[in-house]
Amino acid sequence: MPKISVIVPVYNVEKYLSRCIDSILNQSYADFELLLINDGSTDNSASICNEYEKKDSRIRVFHKENGGVSTARNLGIENAKGRWICFIDSDDWIEKEYFNAFNVDSFSINTLKIQLYKQYNENLNGYTNLFDDNIKSIVTSNDIEKYNIFSFTAPWCKLYCLDLIKINSIRFNPNISLGEDGLFFYEYLKYIDSIDIIEKYLYVYSVGTQNSLTMKYHELSKVLYYLNRKSKYVLLLYSKFGLSDKYLYSKVAVDVRNELFNALYRYKDNRIHFFFKMLDVDYELYNLFRKSKTSNVLEFMIKYIILLKINCKIMMIQKNY
Question: Which of 78, 101, 139, 286 is deepest in the core (most CB within 10 A)?
Answer without folding.
Answer: 101
